[in-house]
Amino acid sequence: MQDLSWWQHAVIYEIYPRSFQDSNGDGIGDLNGIVSRLDYLVRLGVDAVWISPIYPSPMADFGYDVADYCGIDPVFGTMADFDHLLDEVHRRGLKMILDFVPNHTSDQHPWFLESRSSRDNPKRDWYLWRDEPNNWSSNFGGSAWEWDEATGQYYCHSFLKQQPDLNWRNPAVKDAMFDALRFWLRRGVDGFRVDVMWMMIKDQQFRDNPPNPGFRPGQSSNSRLLPVYNTDRPEIHDLVAKMRAIVDELPERVIIGEIYLPVQQLMTYYGVDLKGANLPFNFHLLQCAWSAEAVAQVISEYNAALPEKAWPNWVLGNHDQARIASKVGARQACVAAMLLLTLPGTLTMYYGEELGMVNVPIAPEQVQDPFEKNEPGLGLGRDPERTPMPWGNSAGAGFTTGSPWLPIGYDIDVVNVASLEKDPTSILQLYKKLIQVRRTYRDLVSGRLDSVVAENGVLRYLRRGEQSRIFVALNMGHESAQITVAAGTVLASTSLDRDGQEIAGLIELQGAEGFVVELSS
Ligand code: TEU
Ligand code: CA
User: Fold this and answer.
1) Could you give the residue numbers annotated as active site?
2) Who contacts 287 (Cβ-Cβ below 8 Å, separation ≥6)?
3) What is the distance in A from the centroid of ligand 2 to the CA of 462?
4) Where are the beta strands (DSSP E) in 307-360?
5) Whose CA is nearest to atom 5 of ligand 1?
6) Is 419 buried (19+), middle (13-18) or exposed (0-12) by CB count in 10 A?
7) Which of 145, 193, 257, 386 could form a disulfide with 197 if both were Cys (CB 3.0 to 4.6 A apart)?
C-alpha cells in the first residue's frame, strides 16, 4: 500500500467552479468561495479536487474556451487568489488537479487573433485552415468549418466556432502548450485533467467521415457521422506520451484523459509501457443501463481489458452528463454510491453527487449552455447538472447572496448540506461512511476484483487483498431479493442500519439495499 501514489488511492472531487460557492455576491462561484468550503471537503473525506477551467475566457463554453493558458479569469479571482487556494488545499493535505484544454483555444486568444489576421502570419499554421471544408461536424451542431471572410479560408472547430482547434502537428504549438503545463506544475498543481484528449490530432489528409448507420433522430446532429478521421487518430499516442513526460518532470503528478471511447480503444490511452495517461477516464458506468446485468457486464469487461499494471478508475458523473440521482432515482443513488466506492482504483465524484442532487429543470429563458442553444429541445443541454451547490435552504442556498447564474434546485429544503449533515441516515452520511471504509480497508482500492455476478436483480462481487476479503451485494432492483452470504461483519449498508452486524447465510436485501461485508475467512 505504501508504494501507491496519492492519485492511485484518491477519491477525486470535481468542482464546477461557477456553481460551487460565490464569495462576492455576483451569483457566480469563485476561488475564494472554494477556499471557504474546503473544510467541508475534508469532512467528506475526499483526497483531491479537480477544478473545471478557471482561465481567462469569454465564457462562450464557460471556460472551455481559453483566452490565456497562464492566467485566472477575473470572474473567478486573481492569481494571488489562486495561489492562496492552492496553499489552503495543500495545507489540508488535499491535492489540486487543473483542467487543461489543449484541443482548442478561444477565438479571442491572441494566438488565434494573429492566426486569422493574414494568411502569412507566423501563427497561421497554429490552427487548422483549409480552402475547402470537408464533412466533419461540430460536437455542438453544424459544420466543424467556419468561413473567414477576411482571409478567404475555413478554420476547423470541433466545438463552437468560438473554439478554433489548434494544429497539434505544429512544433511551436506543442512548445507553447507544454510551457503552459510547466507554468502550473511549477506553481504547485498536482496534475491535469485533459479535455477531449482523444480528439487532439486529426487526419492529416482531412478525409471525410463515413455516415453513422446507427444514427437515430433525436440524437445530436454530430452523431450522423462516425468520427473516424477527426478523433482517436494513431498519432495521438505520441502526443499523450509527451504530455505525460512533462508532467513526470516533477514527482507524484497525474495526468487524466477525458476520453469517450469503447473499452478496448480506451485502454490504448494508458500508452505503450503505460507511458500515456495515468488515468484514461472510464465513463462506462455513466453510459450503461442501470441493471445488475448491465453493470456486471461493464465491470467485468473493463476489468478484463485493463492492461497489466494499468491503474483502473471509475466515474459516475461530470459536468457534461445527467446527474446519477436523476438517472437512477434517489434510492438507487445510494446503491450507486456504494458501487463507486467499492470499485478498484481511483474514483471521481461530481460535486453534489454526495447530496443526491438531481438535474434542475431549466426554463427556455434560463438556458446558458451553448449546446442547448445550438440544438434546442433534444435534452442535450448541460445546465441541469451545473446548478448551484445547495449549502443551506436560504434564498441563495448559501451559494450566493446575489442572483445565481443558474437556478437553484426546487428541492433544497431537503437536499442541502446543512440538513443532510445533521441527518444520520442521509446519502451524505453514507458517502462519508463509505469513504472512511475505503480509507480503512485499502484492499478496496488495490485488491483484486472478482466473482462479479448478477442474479435476481442483485449485483455482487468480491474484493480481496492481503489483509481482507470483502463482499459487496447491491440490489439494483425495487423488489426485495434473497442472497447467501458467507460469515462476516457488515462494514457499511445503504440504510446505515446494519453497520457492525455479524451476518451469515440467507439474507433478505430490500429493494435498493446494498451492503459491504468483511468476510471472516
Ligand atoms: O467535453 C467533451 C465532450 O465530449 C462533450 O462535448 C460531450 O460530448 C457533451 O458534453 C455531451 O455530453 C469537454 C468538456 O467536458 C465540455 O464541458 C466542453 O464543452 C467540451 O469538452 C469542449 O471543450
Ligand atoms: Ca463570484
Assistant:
1) 195, 249
2) none
3) 45
4) 313-315, 346-350
5) 320
6) middle
7) 257
What is the Cβ-side half-sphere exposure of residue 179, based on CA atoms within 13 angstroms? 9
Find out whether 500 and 489 touch, Cβ atoms under 8 Å.
Answer: yes
Distance of CA 353 to the CA centre of its chain: 12
| Residues, Cβ < 5 Å to ion ligand 2 | 22, 24, 26, 28, 30
Q: Give me the amino acid identity at 342.
A: T
Q: List the grid coordinates of 94.
A: 488535499
Q: Whole-prediction pTM value?
A: 0.98
Residue type, 167: N
Q: Would you call 441 helix, strand, or coil by DSSP? A: coil
List per-residue pLDDT tens for the chain, 521 residues long. Answer: 458 999 999 999 999 999 999 999 999 999 999 999 999 999 999 999 999 999 999 999 999 999 999 999 999 999 999 999 999 999 999 999 999 999 999 999 999 999 999 999 999 999 999 999 999 999 999 999 999 999 999 999 999 999 999 999 999 999 999 999 999 999 999 999 999 999 999 999 999 999 999 999 999 999 999 999 999 999 999 999 999 999 999 999 999 999 999 999 999 999 999 999 999 999 999 989 999 999 999 999 999 999 999 999 999 999 999 999 999 999 999 999 999 999 999 999 999 999 999 999 999 999 999 999 999 999 999 999 999 999 999 999 999 999 999 999 999 999 999 999 999 999 999 999 999 999 999 999 999 999 999 999 999 999 999 999 999 999 999 999 999 999 999 999 999 999 999 999 999 999 999 999 999 97
- Ligand 1 in reach of 61 Cβ (< 6 A): yes
C-alpha span between 327 and 83 (Å, rounded): 37
Q: Is 320 in the pocket of ligand 1 (CB under 6 A)?
A: yes
Strand partners, 490: 517
Q: How many helices (H) and strands (E) does the chain have?
A: 14, 17
The C-alpha cell at 148 is 473567414
Task: Give me the torsion for CA of 238, 5, 259, 133, rounded to 10°.
Answer: -40
Tell me if 38 sits within 8 A of 88, measured CB to CB.
Answer: yes
Q: Is the CB of 52 under 6 A from ligand 1?
A: no
Q: Which long-range contacts (CB under 8 A, 24 or more apart) does 267-275 make?
A: 267/305, 267/306, 267/307, 267/310, 268/237, 269/197, 269/198, 269/237, 269/240, 270/307, 270/310, 271/237, 271/240, 271/241, 271/244, 272/237, 272/241, 274/307, 274/309, 274/310, 275/241, 275/244, 275/245
CA distance 245 to 253: 10
Question: What is the CA(217)–ligand 1 centre distance, in A?
Answer: 21
Give the strand pairing for 279-280 and 458-464: unpaired
Burial class, 149, CB count within 10 angstroms (exposed 0-12 / middle 13-18 / buried 19+): exposed
